[in-house]
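Following up on my earlier thread - several people asked me to post the actual chain instead of describing it. Fair enough. Here it is, all 256 residues.
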Amino acid sequence: VALGMWTGLARAVFGRPIYAAVLDAAVVGLLVVAAVSAYRSPNRRRLLPIDILLIAYVVISVIQMFNPNVPSVLVGLEGLRKTSFMVVGYGIVRLAPSIDPERFLRIVALGMIPALLWSIRQFVAPSALELDIIAGSGTSPISFHSGTVLRAFAPTASPFHLGILAGSAALIAVALANWRSIRWAAVAVIAATALGLSLTRANIIATVAALGVLSLVGLWIDRRPKIAALATATDGAEHRVAEAIRRHPELVSGTT
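Reply from S.P.:
Thanks for posting it. Predicted structure:
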């Protein structure tokens, strides 16, 4: 996932998407290995609601490749890769029995930092090589601008690609650190800066909404130990009251 952020720059250097194709093949290979391991494992995984949602998302994305508004199958494949193809990462973590999801997310977030810093520098002072990404993108140069302002996009293939990944990095950093770690807080700030400079409104709104959900989940998780402690104390109190009533029934004579 982190290496995939450099596809735009690699395409500008090589003149064709060789780097992206190699990464795609490697990721699909990892998915196949994980699927085979899951099939051979005696522990069958239960289908979760999020699995169904992601499968439906991928199916719809594949169908949209053949939308009459898409110029060619190659352009459709590139669009699929920039969006729903990333679901393969979830599939690998979901199916592989030996992968620690939290460790996976940490590696992804830390691996994104060089590309995020690169994108911030590109917004401030874009180079000629980075402008070649626009020329070889196969999409309208307008999508790389917000009005007259050049969005942050390098080294990815587009500002929207950068926005999706920068938002994901920010969410991972907040979820793992919960702002108790300066290191992860710094990662979140870098990712949020890159997201903001991409000027992709949908990605920004989606990230803010997801942060709200994370905050609510975090509050519930923080409350659970307190709720458990309260339940334990209450349970003990009930036993003590019951024992007192058994020994001294006259205390509650005539009451219900």
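The CA atoms of residues 4 and 142 lie 23 Å apart. That should answer part of your original question.
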